[in-house]
Specification:
The chain is of the alpha+beta class. The protein contains twelve helices and 39 strands. The strands form eight sheets. Strands 8-9-7-11-12-13-14 form a seven-stranded parallel β-sheet, sandwiched between helices. Strands 26-39-35-34-33-32-27 form a seven-stranded antiparallel β-sheet, with no helix packed on it.
Length: about 750
């Protein structure tokens, strides 16, 4: 094999190399299968040295085969390899020790005939120009200087790939990873930013309309990262082409935003330093996902630190494993990066795909016979294949998972991708992985469903009926909810106890989209019963895969007596005129915020003694779930589950302004404030209800004379809510509504209660 010359002019693009070897470059796509070519696709440096533990190969070609896939072959011309990789002449990357002043650094460099070309702000990292032929001497000179953390040669990276016949129908890759089933659940969100560190982007391409963020061109030093090669546009389309728009192709993720960062020039060549700079920039701009379809055989301390910085700041870094059938390249080989191998259309490892212990996951990369169809320059489309094409499949899926569940951490997103991958290929998986496909080929549907698992929510846990020979109570509702954000849930209900007298009204089964609730109505029939207390049960279950919280049961209790003695206490609800009607008192303005976690309760002192059901109290317990109790605080998960009144089960001795599964720890807040000497307000402001998009704003107004006023500024559905007051034993209550039965709640409404 001939010597590898780092100069880009030795083997200009379009000429044949004098060596029979097949060259590689830093981007991870290919236009021929190396096994089909019958070549031994390995490039070895002719000489090298080691500096501070990092192998520096002075003549090493980077790792991605570049061959014209079909265009030149059709003309009878053998495709040319790219210029071989290696070192950038006269350039060194220097990392200064923390605290080194700029003047000291400049003087240090000037003494050695060097100067700063570029810097990464805030990282103490500089690209330094050294006199021709002095690179190795400069490295040796600075190795022991206390101002220098490390120094390393700058290296070349390359991109590759040219589109082929645009008429070839091809989206087999999306079918293979079950993307269509994932799109039934979620198609992405603009809240997620994916950075493509590549040759730039065809920014006006219709598939990316409205989603391209201002990026940067590190090659030309400007703010226009327009793609003049095609590699970056092709990779970005696999991850992010707009779906369901009547044109072209569909990417894995239709809605995430794109941060294009151009580090490779028109020939597909770029440097380590520019790549490092782009990684820092993407991380600082809030990109949660970085796609690097490039790499090289040599480790680099600056490249490692950049990848680690991104990961430590909550980002996922996906990098191509490489295409020479050898060891995984850098940065994919770093533990902090996720190395992506390539599969073919038959779910086998692509012959060119690099392998080894560093491989983490696999995705379709294609072959010469079945390449990947995606976006290209000029608003067009084309074909490529390689680990460059596999990597954006995984990056796009990560964005889907964050759309399905924005609360996931980066580690949780990666775990979902890893744990739901299909174990394809012929190599055995030991401990869940192998060195060829990592943890397997990604499965978008399985990952999305597990990211947003359907959760069966059933409330209340108990229904209580009271009846006599002349009066039958109205039906009561069981709220059946789907706690997932997107994934639908099937449900069915059955009476499993008290079937002679517990009547569940149809429908007794159905499907609930994410976040929605259905009310199952329950009534009772006394015709076969004796006087006394009877207990029945309703079972609600779901057969949806991966469902949580199934099955659940609801107790149905009926007290049947000969004759009921009804006790009516004053209940008044009114609108204007004032002062008896609605008059909002804003406790959040100058009041005290009560910090409440989900299902928490906090005790608050009252500014005056308050009489409630004959007892006088000096404090009140405020619950996150929309009620306030006297004497006892009710905090904890059991108390998000409301029931109707009266009921001896706790909570008791309480004012239920809007008892439901509320969570002020997510957003909104709870406030208390005295107004004058005779009024005290407890306000729930824009508090979210579980499984609902509505935000509830309401308040309890306590008057010194014992009156209670409930005010509703803005409230949503009440199908799982209780409104009323109840005594300490749960034997007496005034109930305005329960689970949608009773009076209606409207915005700007007031209810008055008195227990005396």
């Amino acid at each position: 094999m001939g010597e590898v010359n780092p100069s880009p002019d030795r083997y200009p693009r379009g000429n044949l190399t004098p060596s029979p070897s097949v060259w590689y470059n830093g981007a991870m796509d290919r236009r021929e299968d190396v096994q089909e070519l019958g070549e031994e696709c390995k490039v070895r440096g002719e000489r090298g040295f080691r500096w501070r533990g990092f192998a520096v190969s002075l003549g090493v070609a980077l790792a991605c085969l570049e061959l014209l896939w079909a265009g030149l072959a059709a003309a009878g011309v053998q495709a040319a390899p790219p210029p071989p990789g290696g070192l950038v002449p006269g350039q060194v990357i220097v990392k200064w020790q923390e605290g080194v002043e700029a003047a000291s650094a400049e003087g240090f460099l000037s003494e050695r005939g060097a100067r700063v070309l570029k810097q990464v702000e805030g990282q103490g990292l500089a690209l330094v120009s050294v006199p021709p032929g002095r690179g190795e001497a400069f490295l040796q000179a600075v190795a022991g200087d206390p101002r220098v953390a490390y120094a390393e040669p700058n290296r070349w990276l390359y991109a590759c790939g040219v589109p082929n016949d645009p008429s070839w129908p091809s989206q087999w890759n999306m079918v293979l990873i079950q993307a269509p089933a994932a799109w039934d659940v979620v198609t992405g969100t603009a809240q997620v930013v994916i950075a493509f560190v590549d040759t730039g982007l065809n920014q006006s391409h219709p598939e990316f309309a409205g989603r391209v963020l201002p990026g940067y061109d590190y090659v030309n030093g400007d703010t226009d990262p327009e793609d003049d090669n095609g590699h970056g546009t092709h990779a970005a389309g696999i991850a992010l082409a707009q779906g369901n728009n009547g044109r072209g192709v569909a990417g894995v993720n239709w809605n995430a935003r794109i941060l294009p960062l151009k580090v490779l020039d028109a020939s597909g060549r770029g440097t380590y330093f520019d790549t490092v700079s782009a990684i820092y920039f993407a991380t600082n701009q809030g990109a949660r996902i970085l796609n690097l379809s490039l790499g090289g055989p040599d480790p680099s301390p600056s490249l490692y630190e950049a990848v680690r910085y991104a990961v430590q700041n909550g980002a996922l870094v996906f990098a191509a494993a490489g295409n020479d059938g050898g060891a995984v390249l850098y940065p994919a080989a770093y533990d902090e990066a996720i190395a992506v191998a390539a599969t073919n259309a038959w779910d086998e490892r692509a012959a060119y795909s690099n392998y080894g212990p560093a491989v983490d996951i696999a995705a379709p990369g294609g072959t010469s016979g079945m390449p990947i169809y995606s976006t290209y320059l000029g608003g067009g489309y084309g074909y490529r294949y390689g680990t460059s094409m596999a990597t954006p499949h995984v990056a796009g899926l990560a964005g889907l998972l964050w759309a399905a569940n924005p609360t996931l951490s980066a580690g949780e997103v990666w775990a979902l991708i890893r744990d739901t991958a299909d174990k394809v290929g012929t190599a055995p998986y030991t401990g869940g992985r192998n060195d060829y496909l990592g943890y397997g080929r990604i499965n978008a549907q399985a990952a999305v469903r597990r990211a947003d698992p359907p959760v069966l929510r059933v409330a209340p846990g108990e229904l209580w009926f009271l009846m006599d020979d002349t009066w039958t109570p109205p039906s009561q509702g069981i709220a059946i909810g789907n706690g997932a954000r997107h994934v639908p849930l099937t449900w069915e209900a059955a009476v499993t106890g008290g079937s002679r007298w517990v009547l569940a009204l149809p429908p007794l089964s159905g499907t609930l989209p994410g976040g929605l609730t259905h009310t199952l109505w329950i009534s009772v029939d006394r015709s076969s019963l004796s006087y006394g207390t009877h207990t029945g049960r309703v079972r609600v279950s779901s057969a949806t895969p991966d469902v949580q919280g199934s099955p659940q049961g609801v107790w149905v209790r009926l007290t049947y007596v000969r004759s009921l003695s009804h006790l009516y206490l004053p209940l008044l609800f009114a609108h204007p005129p004032e002062p008896e009607g609605y008059l909002w008192l804003d406790a959040s303005a100058g009041g005290t915020a009560i910090t409440l976690g989900d299902d928490d309760a906090a005790q608050v002192a009252l500014p005056f003694p308050f009489r409630f059901y004959g007892q006088v109290y000096s404090s009140i317990w405020v619950s996150a779930n929309g009620f306030a109790s006297f004497g006892t605080g009710y905090g904890g998960p059991p108390y998000y589950n409301n029931h109707c009144l009266p009921n001896s089960s706790p909570p008791n001795n309480a004012i239920y302004a809007f008892w439901d599964d509320l969570d002020p720890s997510l957003e909104g807040g709870v406030y208390v404030k005295p107004f004058g000497a005779d009024t005290f307000v407890i306000e729930w402001q824009e508090v979210p209800k579980y499984g609902s998009v509505s935000r509830e704003t309401f308040e309890i107004v306590l008057k010194a004379d014992g009156r209670i006023k409930l005010q509703y500024k803005e409230v949503g559905t009440t199908g799982s809510s209780t409104v009323g007051v109840e005594n300490a034993s749960g034997s007496r209550a005034q109930q305005y509504l329960c689970n949608g039965i009773g009076g209606a709640l409207t915005n700007e409404m007031a209810l008055w209660f008195t227990t005396e």
